[in-house]
Amino acid sequence: MSLYLGFDSSTQSLTALVAEIDGAGTRIVFESAIEFDRELPEYGTVHGVLPGADPAVAVSSPLMWGDALDRMMRRLADSGLDLSTLAAISGSAQQHGSVYLNARAATELEALDPARPLVGQLAGMLARPVSPIWMDTSTSAECAEIAQAAGGSAAVAQRTGSRPFERFTGPQIRKFFKADPVAYAATDRIHLVSSFMASLLAGTHAPLDPGDGSGMNLMDLDTCEWWTVAVDATAPALAQKLPALVPSSAIVGRLSPFWQRRYGLPPARVVAWSGDNPCSLVGTGLVAEGRVAISLGTSDTIFGLMRTPRVDPSGTGHVFGSPTGVYMGLTCVKNGSLARERIRDAFAMTWDDFSRALDAAPPGNDGRILIPWFEPEITPAVAVGGERRYGLAPDDGPGNVRGVVEAQQMALALHSRWMGVDIREIHATGGASVNRAILRVMADVFGADVIPFDVANSAALGAVLRAYHADRLADAQPVEWDAVVAGIIEPNGRERIVPDPRRHEMYRDLLTVYAACEAHALGGPDPAPAIAAWRARHTERSG
Ligand code: XUL
After folding, report:
1. How far from 259 is each of 66, 112, 116, 281, CA to CA, in Å?
2. The pTM is what?
3. How many A from CA of 49 to the centre of ligand 1?
4. For ligand 1, atom 8, which residue shows the shortest CA distance?
5. For residue 301, which atom of ligand 1 is closest to its CA?
């Protein structure tokens, strides 16, 4: 029986999951997380982000991510697990974030001293001390410049799967090149968080997989190669600085001598890392078309597998590569867990209080709407944060709790229509998916069964399963994806949450009100008539 290790390097924490996998089944034998703010306070992050004056800028520390990896490896080595049968390692990482390494990195990654912590040896390899991450919304000018040079937003979307987006790596690279051309010139390799972490494990520059590569506005979705037009439109000499693109199942090396000697680990295969959403696709078992998953994490995302790419004509959604070799559609809402926390903290609630408050306000919230754009939003694009309330008093605890939960689910429903999936079943994952009260709202808004999973971190689970899949492929004993996800992705039938048809009808109607409020918050007409009409219809019905 072999062991497989999967990491999830997310915005706020690093998780490691180890599973024993053989033909008969999968058993999770180790799970641990390092929360950056709490366990690595010396880096000074708040929710995994370095504080700064400009709310549009979001950067984090690549040294902190490396430090967390070193500490997690020690935890694993001290866990008492017999790691001699560790066959392969892969990982998932927050998407879009970039790490800038200088020319010394290539040799220094190979010659790390196992007697010394990783972090001290990493500092000298950085061409830029910070990494812009997916929460950054500061590159609208660069998006416009790239669009113009590459034939327009629609052309970029058609080729790369997404129109130029502020958080995507291409616009971020362009901003860095413009702001600090000297440091840009001294950059030898620009990694995503995923390929950076894989490089640390393998002790050499690791390539990128198409799942994460498609989050850059630089990759041709069709060929899975760099699209020269976008590369040239982004920054000079960029082609030489980008990692190679390889299939998601590629073995990028072996666990380097640094880790072997430092922690007595075996030379396990290192499999290409991918983005957290592509990994979650696998970790929620979505290896066939027709179902979707909703991940309630720092960002809330809705995604599903696509056999052929259908690009979003409205420009809000994305098509990424799927680790299974086809495509996935995704919509990302930025005001996810931090917006829920904002409301919870404003009323000094625990999560149990939050669930009780949600149940204390009526479904539909009497037509009162909260637009929870506490921070600048991605979907729809909102450059300056600021929440809006329609008929909702700011001091009404249950009303605001229901307001934030309903708004988030309605936003996901509204902005995922472009995927064209008739949603009958939703696989729920991410930290907040343990909250059944939230999942009930999800079921009612979508009119779909919601299936929660025992393993909330589907991204780390997806990384474990990808490691297993690639390892078997490398041994010329390939396992079909259906078989890889069978067993572990057995939805827990007992907990399936079934929608209430009457409530779903009500939410379908409320969705038009929500859309009117969103449109108003973006500068459109007053939604008061839509709200009043909804109230009249629903008071009549319940009266
Ligand atoms: C997806 C996105 C986020 C990050 C962080 O496009 O920006 O979901 O991957 O999790």
Report:
1. 13, 9, 11, 29
2. 0.94
3. 14
4. 299
5. 8
